[in-house]
Amino acid sequence: MSDTLLTIDGISVKYGSIEALHEVSMSVKRGDIVSLIGANGAGKSTLLKAVMAQVPLSSGSITFEGNEICSTKKHGRTTHQLASLGMALVPEGRHVFADMTVEENLDMGAFLVRDSKEIDRKKEEMFDFFPILSQRRKQKTRSLSGGEQQMMAIARALMSSPKLLLLDEPGLGLAPLIVQDIFHKIRKINEEDKVTVFLVEQNARMALKNSTTGYVIETGNIVLSDTSENLLNNEKVKAAYLGE
Amino acid sequence: MTTLIQYLQYFLNGITLGAIYALIALGYTMVYGILKFINFAHGDILMVGAYTGLLTYTALLGDSTNGAWMLIAFFLAMLVSMAFCAILGMFIEKVAYKPLRNANRLAPLLSAIGVSFILSNGAAWIFGTQSRRFPYPFDDTPIVIAGLSITPHQILTIVVSIIMMIVLTSFVNKTRMGKAMRATSLDQPTSELMGIDVNHVISMTFAIGSALAAVGGILASFDFRVSASMGTMTGLKAFVAAVIGGIGNIQGAMLGGIILGILESVGAPLLGIPSSLRDAIAFAVLIIILLVKPDGILGKNEREKV
User: Fold this and answer.
1) CA atoms within 13 A on the CB side of A131
2) Domain that holds residue B59
3) In which element (H, E) is residue B90 found?
4) Is B143 a domain residue?
5) Is B197 on the interface with A (CB under 8 A)?
6) Residue B21 · residue B238 · CB < 8 Å
7) 8 A C-beta contact, residue B112 and residue B92
8) CB of B251 within 8 Å of any CB in chain A?
């Protein structure tokens, strides 16, 4: 097996006549945390949606574990097929099933797991990892705070034991302390469970501090890529994204 | 002068009628919950269910007058009809609605009306326009308790409806597929991220809704007779019931059906209007609900947390 888990090769995405992504190429190595930073509207969410086949490509291709999963050819994989390959996306704005309890949400995350013992084991693991969810397990997700919902959305994605965890703005709209806690958890997931993480984030400092590799996207184009450490010290990044 | 006992009698009759509406309303509401689309051919499915049930029942029965076999044949006919309608429902979805899923919202609606015409006119062509009686699979002499009379077919209607509703509720709340159905109606793109095949869920929804309509159609034919046009008014009323309860809400459809049945049955004598105007009550209730609480009794009016 190759060292690269996900390869994005020159993809473009158009919304009508507007090009949201322009020939974007990047790769995610197995075991890494890769962050993609950029301003609002730069194309970050679109990129994750393209990876999960939620928006069609107008050119380019995407490869996961050496298999082409998506290209401009008509019969790409559908979103639910990608989930079964081991890709899980925590969408922007969390998208919890608000009318379902925390436990039911986790059950949905484990939809592809057929073994009920394995589902129960995984649930307990999640409740250990996110103790707050354990107290809320029988509550409708609607009644959870934003931070709790975000943790639940991450736990739900982890229920399927994905190889690649994609996170769309995990810190969006949350208090700084909670954002810190969430990024701390993301690192733990990566280190202890060996889950490869690809996250997009507006909070550039938080994202770069907690990742191995970073990419910078501006109006649909990747303009910079380096190790996260180098990007934190890059003058351009400092000026544009870190407010220094 | 209408006495209290008489009103209780109307009330009881209303529950029976309402149970039938509820079974049919479930199909409207489940499909709406997932596709945000009113399947106007649903009423005609119940008609197909009634004919399938009637034909299967008469074929199975033959010349037999054995009481036990009559009951067995009736339930077998109901199962055959449920299976046939489930397949028909899935087929209609694949052919008439799925290709229009990304089209203008009006397109599938018009397609549904077209399917409705095909089914009702097709039935009239095959079976003629004469209505037929669905023979009782038992002696339907009313049982009188404390001045209230209840017929065995009313008892059958209530019992079968309750069983169907319990089975559906536990399916939706307890099983993997049922939960996937709820998840899909709450948030389709996110359900796909969970690995749920939404097309499969939609097929299942049509299958279940149509099977319930088949049961509703058979039970309705005791009171309304079997005819090619039987689905139109009953289907419309069940749709009203689904709106009263809160369209998209399963408990709402059950509640709305029962409420509508009772209002229709009790309302006419209470308001002193002739029973021929009974149908007007359903639509008057619809107008009132749409004015007062457009989301229906159990419909939710909450904002999603962002």
Assistant:
1) 1
2) 4-128+191-292
3) helix B67-92
4) no
5) yes
6) yes
7) no
8) no
Q: Which residue bears the tokens 């609606």?
A: B109
Q: How many domains does chain B have?
A: 1
Which residues in chain B touch residue A78, judged by CB atoms under 8 angstroms apart? 192, 197
Encoded amino acid at A22, one letter: H
A100 vs B contacts (CB less than 8 Å): 179, 182-183, 186
CA distance B53 to B132: 12
**Is B100 inside a domain boundary?**
yes
Domains annotated on chain A, with CATH: 4-242 (3.40.50.300)
Give the minimum alpha-carbon distance from A104 to chain B in angstroms, rounded to a whole number: 8
Q: Is B198 on the interface with A (CB under 8 A)?
A: yes
Tell me the C-alpha distance between B22 and B44, whole Å: 16
Residue A108 to residue B187, Cβ atoms within 8 A: no
Question: Do B75 and B82 contact (CB within 8 A), yes or no?
Answer: no
In the sheet with A67-71, reading across from the earlier edge strand, the strands are: A18-29, A4-15, A59-64, A67-71
Tell me, what amino acid is at A221? Answer: N
d(CA B259, CA B261): 5
In a domain, B159, yes or no: no
What type of residue is B76?
A: L
In this structure, what token pair is assigned to residue A52?
A: 């999960």
Express each pLDDT in B51-68 by its tens digit: 999 999 999 998 888 889
The position carrying tokens 């084991």 is A121
Residue written as tokens 């999603």? B304
With residue B183 as reference, give the H or E element that holds it: helix B176-186
What is the identity of the amino acid at A218?
Answer: E
Residue B249 lies in a domain: yes
3-class secondary-structure state, position B142: coil
**Mind listing the pLDDT tens digit of every residue in chain A (244 residues)?**
458 999 999 999 999 889 999 999 999 999 999 999 999 889 999 999 999 999 999 999 999 998 889 877 666 789 999 999 999 999 999 999 999 999 999 999 999 999 999 999 999 999 999 999 999 999 999 999 999 999 999 999 999 999 999 999 999 989 999 999 999 999 999 999 999 999 999 999 999 999 999 999 999 999 999 999 999 999 999 999 888 7
- Residues A59, A71: contact at Cβ < 8 Å? no
